[in-house]
Every structure is written in structure tokens, then in C-alpha cells.
Amino acid sequence: MRRWQLFLPLILFFGLCLLLYIGLFRSERDQLPSPLLNQPLPDFSLNTVLKPNHRVTANDLKGHVALINVWATWCIACRVEHPYLNQLAQQGITIYGINYKDDQPAAKQWLIQLHNPYRFSINDNQGKLGMDLGVYGAPETYLIDSDGIIRYKHIGIVDSNIWNTVLRPLYEALIQQKEGAL
């Protein structure tokens, strides 16, 4: 047996470690873009979490530049993100929620106990709207323009860093674009 063959398992191990390291620490900008960017929101007609008899459609999300936040009570990262979404809502940022594949009584209780940053939160307990949007998991946040066109998708927690460096500049540009069109 040749000497270099003894080191082959060690070389393969370090190669695998390098690939895993690169995968773990990739920039969020390297994530796969949403195929729905610059496309209208998918059509839907679903009930809201707090008013189960109140149906909303994609048309109900038009008219405002807004964030659409995919969340669930089973999502630990959503609990981390939620207080910051409340702060954004208090600043007048329009946020709609999509409660994704969740237990509805738990979701309702969550919004009552932890405060509700959403104009309304859509009950997507079957996950069809999430599938149509290309949701990988919660939390995910979409930025839509006033015509209901998806302009950006963020996978992961929205915090002050993400808001100030990524979402806020895009949000404000869409606001200015809307005001310029009037």
C-alpha cells in the first residue's frame, strides 16, 4: 500500500469539513432568490387568525408598501423576531402575517399575549399559500409594493441590522416610488 493512500481518509475528512464550514457561514445574499420576485402575490382566499370568519384575499394586501411575515408558534426564531416586529409596527410599518402550518388556538393566544404587529394574520394551516410563495420555513419575510408585487424575500429573523441595512432602504424606495407615481 502506498503511503499517500493512508492519508486519503484524512484528506476527505478535511475536505468535507471545509464544505460544511462554507455552507454554514455563507452570506444571506448567497441564498436562492425567490422565483416570485417581481411577480404578484399568488391568489388566495383564507381566514384570519383573530377573526376566523373573516376571509382575506391577495387584493386585501394591495394599496400599501408592506412586509409579509411568515410565522408560527412552533418556530423558536419567530419568538426571537416578534418583539422587533412589534417595534416596526409601532413605527407605522405595515406588516401582514401568514401563520404557517400552525395550531390556531395557540396562534391566537400568541398574538394576544405577545402583542400583534400585524394588520391581520392569515391562517395558512394547510400551508398552501406558503407553498405557493415558495416558503422554506418560518420565519420568512416578503416585501411587497402597493400593487401587491413581491419585491424582496428575506429568509430568517428580521432584526435591527436586517431592517436598517436591507429592508428599510428597499421599503423607503418603494414608498418614494409610490409617492412619485401619485
Structure report:
This protein is α/β, with parallel strands linked by helices and 182 residues long. It is built from 5 helices and 7 strands; from the N terminus they run H-E-E-E-H-E-H-E-H-E-E-H. The chain has a 5-stranded mixed β-sheet. Strands 1-2 form a two-stranded antiparallel sheet. Strand 1 (45-47) and strand 2 (55-57) form a beta hairpin. The longest helix has 22 residues, at 3-24.
Chain-wise SSE layout:
Layout: H1 3-24, E1 45-47, E2 55-57, E3 66-71, H2 76-90, E4 95-100, H3 104-114, E5 121-124, H4 128-133, E6 140-144, E7 150-155, H5 160-181
Summarize this structure briefly.
The chain is an alpha/beta fold.
Cα distance spanning the termini: 78 Å
Strand content: 15-25%
Radius of gyration, CA atoms, in whole angstroms: 20 Å
Biggest β-sheet, characterized?
5 strands, mixed
Q: What fraction, in percent, of the residue positions are helical?
A: 40-55%
How many strand units? 7
Stretches with pLDDT under 50, minimum 5 residues: none
Task: Enumerate the strands of the largest sheet in spatial order, edge to edge or round the barrel.
Answer: 5-4-3-6-7
Shape: globular
- The pLDDT mean sits at 89
- Helix/sheet category: alpha/beta
Put simply, the count of helices is 5
* Order of SSEs: HEEEHEHEHEEH
